[in-house]
Amino acid sequence: QRYCSLFEWADGPLVSAMRDGHLLLLDEMSLAEDAVLERLNSVLEPSRLLVLAEKGGDTDLTTNVEARGERSFSSNGGSEIHAKENFRIFATMNPGGDFGKRELSPALRSRFTEIWVPSVTGRTDVNVVLERTLSAAVERLPLETHHLVQRLGNIRGKML
């Protein structure tokens, strides 16, 4: 029997990373909607579980749901995904208060280890970054590159 549906489920980065045991980077996490962020709470618990009630029924009757690391929990769809052992989540964010950014809930923050990284502001900071990323090539950088870095620093200073 063929089903006629308007929508088809496609795994996103979170489900794929959980299923395959990969790393997931949530860049600028504080820009996401609260409802989206709250869905992460169960994934960050020791059970590392994600319930996909919105997935709906599997129209491919030959698909082995168990082989994909899922457990179907109802006759009309939905499934539970348990993260593989190597699955990890990393997140970045700027402090709240800027336009569009908000503070994370205490429940969500308690599930992460927070590391504060200060802004790179001085010319010496830029030189350290250049030296560590470009190693020996830094010594051969043309003078124009240093002037460009200096001008960009001046522009940034005027914008702040």
From TrEMBL:
Domain of life: Eukaryota
Biological processes per GO annotation: ribosomal large subunit assembly; ribosomal large subunit export from nucleus
Keyword field: ATP-binding, Nucleotide-binding
Gene Ontology molecular functions: ATP binding; ATP hydrolysis activity
Any one cellular-component term (Gene Ontology): preribosome, large subunit precursor
Database matches in SUPFAM superfamilies: P-loop containing nucleoside triphosphate hydrolases
Residues of the ATPase dynein-related AAA domain: 8-112
Gene3D superfamilies cross-referenced by the UniProt entry: P-loop containing nucleotide triphosphate hydrolases
UniProt cross-references to PANTHER family, sorted A to Z: MIDASIN (PTHR48103:SF2), MIDASIN-RELATED (PTHR48103)
Protein name (Swiss-Prot/TrEMBL): ATPase dynein-related AAA domain-containing protein
Species whose genome carries this gene: Pseudictyota dubia
Taxonomic lineage: Eukaryota, Sar, Stramenopiles, Ochrophyta, Bacillariophyta
